[in-house]
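Appendix C: a fully annotated inverse folding record. The material below is reproduced so that readers can follow the format used throughout the book. The structure is listed first as tokens, followed by the designed sequence.
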């Protein structure tokens, strides 16, 4: 694979940007080699500056469920752009997107837009603390809710990928208000609530985890969270930044029929532009300024361009066949990868939820952070590099999800499976 210009441009980037990247996981730190500098995307493909064409399973980490540069999204942005980019004032598009979200997610009666998933989770936790008057929050090891100070404890995604110990830069006084529990371990959570339930403001969870790789909730885990939080007057926050409008029109809460008190959203609802959101029960959300005292603000929150991209994306997902196609693609990819691993006699587990999946290089089940960390990350790195050479762009980390889009075809998936079979045969 020709990579001269990527190398040159990445060296230049490193002169001005820490690690040459705007987000750590992009740096290929865990898989070896240097990142490609991407020039453009179209449908299920990205094209780097050296002219290499790759089938893309990162899809910008989830937002691009329609694929790159979808004509309807591009047109919506162009039309909005003719009237300006941002007003710092109410605009029609905000209400349109807010209505779509509230219609899709019955637990969301009011929603506030921000500009990232990090802001959404950070704001939802501040609101939970303001609403309950309590300080403690519970998160799960391996789950990632963005990089706000109190949430970096044993986080997944780039923190896991780079093996960053704890959360340097976060004062102990912040971290002590965050309790970390093992994912899928209801007993551990019950013991935490027995000991400190009266001081817990909220439990925040990825209802289907995507940041230790894809890990599914065990039967009973999510209903148990709902029961325990309700019993102790704590709020249940679903971080659906990945799963929102990904697992289905109703997200994970629709799929598992659980009503959280608050929901965090991002990625897909921005259609590829910077958007996050948090929303939920009216009596809670009414505490958000200016209606209530819990402050949260943002210069570009709800800007018309990002709202237009999100509206176009959600409108395109409304067609019932959309999720059927995503499920079919995911099923084909999962089955093909599993067969290729068996053929190559390589111990691996594939965990999938609709159009997101992870191929874990481990013989054992992956049900939480500890079992994910037992994966052979060196083997994942070798697999990643072989797939890249074969023209398939996977997430540069064992602890991330592969994302399919409506732009992927069965032919793309078959080509990916064939490339995986060749790569696995020489691992
Ligand atoms: P952002 O601040 O990156 O928009 O969202 C943070 C976030 C919150 N919650 C969940 C469940 C998330 O997955 C994320 C961000 N996801 C990572 C990838 N797993 C973004 C990629 C990156 O950090 O570069």
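Designed amino acids, in order:
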């Amino acid at each position: 694979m020709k990579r001269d210009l990527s190398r040159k441009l990445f060296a230049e980037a490193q002169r001005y940007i820490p690690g040459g990247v705007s987000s750590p996981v992009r740096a290929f730190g865990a898989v070896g080699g240097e990142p490609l500098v991407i020039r453009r995307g179209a449908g299920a493909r990205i094209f780097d500056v050296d002219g290499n064409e790759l089938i893309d399973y990162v899809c910008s980490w989830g937002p691009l469920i329609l694929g790159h540069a979808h004509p309807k999204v591009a047109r919506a942005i162009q039309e909005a752009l003719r009237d300006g980019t941002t007003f710092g004032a109410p605009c029609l598009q905000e209400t349109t997107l807010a209505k779509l979200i509230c219609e899709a997610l019955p637990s969301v009666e009011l929603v506030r837009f921000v500009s990232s998933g990090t802001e959404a989770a950070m704001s939802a936790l501040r609101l939970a603390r303001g609403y309950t008057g309590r300080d403690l929050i519970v998160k799960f090891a391996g789950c990632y809710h963005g990089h706000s100070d109190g949430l970096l404890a044993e986080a997944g995604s780039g923190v896991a990928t780079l093996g960053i110990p704890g959360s340097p830069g976060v004062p102990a006084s912040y971290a002590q208000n965050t309790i970390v529990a093992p994912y899928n371990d209801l007993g551990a959570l019950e013991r935490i609530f027995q000991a400190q339930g009266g001081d817990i403001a909220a439990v925040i969870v990825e209802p289907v985890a995507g940041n230790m790789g894809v890990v599914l909730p065990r039967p009973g885990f999510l209903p148990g969270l709902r029961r325990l939080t309700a019993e102790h007057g704590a709020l249940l926050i679903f971080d659906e930044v990945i799963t929102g409008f990904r697992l289905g029109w109703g997200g994970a809460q629709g799929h598992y029929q659980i009503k959280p008190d608050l929901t965090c959203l991002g990625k897909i609802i921005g259609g590829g532009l910077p958007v996050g959101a948090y929303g939920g029960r009216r009596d809670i959300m009414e505490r958000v300024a200016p209606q209530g005292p819990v402050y949260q603000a943002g210069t570009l929150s709800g800007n018309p361009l990002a709202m237009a991209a999100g509206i176009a994306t959600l409108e395109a997902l409304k067609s019932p066949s959309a999720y059927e196609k995503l499920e079919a693609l995911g099923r084909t990819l999962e089955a093909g990868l599993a067969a290729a691993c068996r053929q190559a006699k390589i111990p691996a587990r594939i965990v999938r939820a609709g159009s997101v999946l992870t191929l874990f290089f481990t013989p054992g089940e992956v049900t939480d952070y500890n079992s994910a960390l037992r994966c052979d990350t060196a083997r994942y790195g070798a697999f990643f590099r072989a797939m890249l050479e074969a023209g398939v762009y996977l997430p540069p980390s064992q602890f991330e999800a592969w994302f399919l889009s409506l732009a992927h075809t069965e032919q793309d998936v078959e080509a990916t499976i064939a490339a995986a079979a060749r790569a696995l045969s020489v691992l």
